[in-house]
Amino acid sequence: MKKIKNISLFSFFLFLLTYTSCSEEEFLEEINPNAITTETFWATEKNFNAALTTVYGALQFQSISGGSLQYDYVRGDIAGTESWYRPYAFRNLTYNDGIYYVSDKWNELYVGIFRANQVIEYIQEADDSKFSGNSKLEIEAQARFLRAFFYFEVAHNYGGAVLRTQVSDESLPFSSIEEVTNTVIIPDLEFAQNHLPKSWDASSLGRVTWGSAKSLLGKVYLFNENWQMASDMFEEVINSGIYALTPKIMDNFTDENEFNSESIFEVAYSAELNPGASGDAVDDSPTESGAEASTIASAIGQLSFGGYNTVLPSYYLHELFWYDEIDPTNPINNSGNLQSKRMNASIVPLNGEGLYYGLKINQRPGWGFGQSAYVKKYTNWYHLSAEDSNNRSGINFRHIRLADVYLMYAETLIKNTGDYSNAIIYIDKVRKRAGVKTIQKYLDENSNTFPQLHVSAQVHGVHPMVSPTSETIMTHLQRVERPLELCFEGHRWKDLVRWGIVDKVFSELREDEIWRENNLDLLQLNNNGIAPLFIRERVRPDFFLAAQNYTSSQHDYLPIPSSEVQTNNQLNK
Known about the structure:
By secondary structure, the chain is mostly helical.
């Protein structure tokens, strides 16, 4: 099933939220004895589940799992945009505390937190006899997982959070990442891992599980550089036998095999429900019909096929995919493909393989003015002739999948004990599924060396060969494996920030741009361009301003929205 909503109860509960937030003076003094009150609503398992559904509903907000993630995508090294698109300010790091996405993301995350707080607070007083089996603990565990996730997103997008853990909390001071993590995120996830089931029945697909909690807790420890605890969490998930990489990586980015064996934390979307009078992709008010679509496909899909292509793969990412060398001995490549399976699932270059929205790739315009590739991941290229005219997509969004856990686990092995040999094993599991040469195969074929694929061969002429060490394998994880496997899944900027390499990456990629700008004739921009990128007409300057403007203290995290600064008189106390 695509959703877990009960629309009537969902709508009623949203009304109840509004009702309970208003003062008594706003209502007539005459009381309807048949009306449902706060006290009577928070009394049954059915109503708590209805309330919990609204917490899940907040995951569908576009800044959390949908179309507004485009503003995150362009902040790192995997994507650029054009000056006429709204994400341009984020690509160049010229946004401020009043810009749309800065406030939208904050507000949407705190809606989720408020809803979770209501469930958590009221369930403490609920009568145990009104709940069947373990349902009371399971409801609280789900709400606490979701609150932890929302707070993780606030903390690592804004450099901390206002810690609102009770329904009545309003003006409170800003807390550090460390305080938020230790006060709310870790305790909530520990509770969740202890009380969530390992799986749900088919009628409850989309609910978080033990594996969701373990994986997110491992990620929290990873970001805290608590390598042993992170490693332990990931190892439990890996060894549980619950999860497995899907044979086809594409199964993680379509609407055809959702909640599959690789999925650990997935947000359900549907393009089938009526959007209601407002036309919003996600209708989240009592007067609407409960539509729950994502707008990401239209935002990043190619302009020639009904999208806006506001996010464009960087030359760096495109070149990484080009040199993601297939292994002809891997049975996954029996179809005769010359490009990796994850390239075909993630981006479309001019010389890509297969059909694109049902046509040959170069059959429609859009391959000039510096555009070397477009984003495929999370678009509807595989089954539609164009993106939906109402900007609606039903492809679920995966926040955590097993491939990510493998790569995070590999990182903990390196950072904790320097065990790069076992780290290679887990990196190679991901590479093998993609149909590309494993690191071990490179080592076997090249006198125990492997290529530094993040170094541009177009610019520098060759990929330097290096021996495997903790440092070189970690660099491969940072600069090659994670961007190739996880591009456009919402991880990249947080990764670059936690590793402290934003400045280094931007500087290197700006140097590559300068080389291309100085070698226009060699690149044959006025003709058809040359392999591997086939750039035409101009070099897109993705890192020109970003490299100049970046300052860690100013840009690692988004500013606190001006609306919060103006209304929260305790913020800086």
